[in-house]
Write a structure and sequence with these properties.
2 domains; peptidase activity; single chain; alpha+beta; protease; four-stranded antiparallel sheet; Transglutaminase-like; Immunoglobulin-like; Papain-like_cys_pep_sf; C8orf32 fold
């Protein structure tokens, strides 16, 4: 399926402000980029680099005044990978690949080593078969017990805050899910990008877990994980995958996001 995504960030900049962004899509298996665009108005030069997770990043200095950053992508993507039958099983830590190991450690927003997190995950999934059953139980519990609401959490909100307050947005749902999975020694990472089926359109966050030797997508915001996605970045938590990180005096005034599914072109 072909899918389009578009986002427009509008800033008021009060002093020249250095920013790094993650707004261009990843090129990876299962996601073929057909075309993309990245534009800053007024035009300023920017450089690009790849971070330690393989995410494409941009870096520039925003000038004083009103600045818009527009990114567009059209990609060939597959539907969210379904879980095989029988479902993938838990992997012992000793059997995990080296590059996966840091996804079982606590991180800035996912305090997976805390006793309170352990008590919660034991209550949710402690008696289940290790692996997929536990992850799906965590995902379902968050969907059913955490209220989705804008404006009640911010950039300092952690998984522990969400566990206690039971409210947040996709970023918060994802942080809690990651912390709970990691407490069970199941590698989990945060992924951000476009999802075609959101009630309120926005850039979206979900979590991937490594079970049975592969990464699988889980989305606690949805009643059931499904849909088409364009992945922009993944990392340990929001500290690694912030769409825009600024080092100066600028205020985000608006963010407009669009997605569209396009019919695949006929064969021949």
């Amino acid at each position: 399926m072909k899918m389009k995504g578009r986002s427009i960030f509008t800033y008021d900049v009060y002093a020249p402000t250095t920013v790094t962004t993650m707004l261009r899509p990843r090129r990876q298996e299962g996601q073929s980029i057909i075309q993309e665009g990245f534009n800053i108005e007024p035009s300023v030069p920017f450089s690009e680099y790849t971070d330690i997770y393989g995410n494409p990043c941009q870096r520039t200095i925003l000038p004083v005044g009103k600045v818009t950053i527009t990114t567009e992508v059209q990609a060939q993507v597959s539907a969210t990978k379904s879980i095989p039958n029988p479902p993938p099983t838990f992997m012992l830590v000793g059997d995990l690949p080296d590059e996966v190991m840091h996804y079982i450690l606590p991180s800035r927003y996912c305090e997976s080593d805390l006793h309170e997190i352990n008590m919660l995950v034991m209550n949710i999934a402690g008696n289940l078969t290790p692996g997929y059953e536990q992850v799906e139980a965590i995902r379902t519990w968050i969907h059913q017990n955490i209220k989705y609401q804008y404006g009640v959490t911010d950039s300092s909100t952690t998984a522990l805050d969400v566990a206690r307050n039971r409210i947040g947005v996709c970023r918060d749902f994802t942080h809690l899910a990651i912390a709970l999975c990691r407490n069970l020694c199941i590698p989990a990472r945060m992924t951000v990008g476009y999802l075609d089926r959101l009630k309120v359109m926005d850039l979206h966050a979900w979590f991937d877990v490594y079970i049975g030797g592969e990464w699988y997508t889980f989305d606690a915001v949805q009643e059931k994980t499904n849909g088409y996605r364009i992945e922009i970045a993944h990392g340990r938590d929001a500290a690694d995958v912030a769409m825009v990180t600024q080092y100066g005096n600028a205020t985000l005034q608006s963010l407009h996001v669009e997605t569209e599914l396009l019919e695949p072109e006929p064969a021949g």
